[in-house]
Specification:
Ferric Hydroxamate Uptake Protein, Chain A, domain 1; mainly beta; three-stranded antiparallel sheet
Length: 222
């Protein structure tokens, strides 16, 4: 807001007309500050090295970390998405605008701890059109569970051609007493008619636990 006062040389006859000549001028300034939204496109995903799952891609965005624990002390698998350090329980995950229901399927260990090993196996990377990571006040409109931020995964539209993919991830520890991880992802999409198409994807994951006596022979002497 600015004041623009016009001054003119007044004569004795028009002194009364010169009073109250202040003009108030208002204007709007364009906000050049980028909002708290980052986007990962399909081309950017394709240029990246082969990822174990989408969490490895999302973690490269500003303010995003992977954690195995929440602020409430619950245990996870080390691959839960945490935005702005507010805990995975305050990060809302969406696929095409719909909440990921599998995050509510909580498995509890024998100590009553939370275990979410399937928490990041939502969509194969090759099926993603783009990913939106929303932080700060921009995430407030999503309501409960989005205090830290929102991750919205937008999948590719099914076209008139058939597409399919299959990839396998294998993690073999150096020591035979440590558990290994095997995962296979698949996707298939194509037309079923002139106006009907479908998309199907899934994964199969198997994690072998560490040996029961993995620490035997490795204790330090005191």
């Amino acid at each position: 807001m600015a004041d623009d006062t016009t001054r003119t040389k007044a004569t004795p006859g028009d002194a009364g007309d010169a009073e109250g000549g202040t003009i108030m001028v208002t204007a709007e300034q364009q906000n050049l500050q980028a909002p708290g939204v980052s986007t990962i496109t399909a081309d950017e995903i394709k240029k990246r090295p082969l990822s174990r799952d989408l969490s490895e891609i999302i973690r490269t965005m500003p303010g995003v970390n992977l954690t195995g624990n929440s602020t409430s002390g619950q245990r996870g698998n080390g691959r839960q998405i945490d935005i702005r350090g507010m805990g995975p329980e305050n990060t809302l995950i969406l696929i095409d605008g719909m909440p990921v229901a599998s995050r509510n399927s909580v498995r509890l260990g024998w100590r009553g701890e939370r275990d979410t090993r399937g928490d990041t196996n939502w969509v194969p990377p090759e099926m993603v059109d783009h990913i939106e990571v929303i932080r700060g006040p921009a995430a407030a409109r999503y309501g409960n569970g989005a205090a830290g931020g929102v991750v919205n995964i937008i999948t590719k539209q099914t076209g008139n051609d058939w597409h399919g993919s299959w990839n396998t991830y294998l993690n073999m520890p150096e020591h035979q007493s440590e558990g290994s991880t095997k995962r296979s992802n698949f996707s298939l999409s194509g037309p079923l008619g002139d106006d009907v198409s479908f998309s199907l994807w899934g994964n199969l994951s198997k994690t072998q636990a560490d040996a029961q006596f993995i620490n035997e022979g490795h204790q330090s002497l005191r």
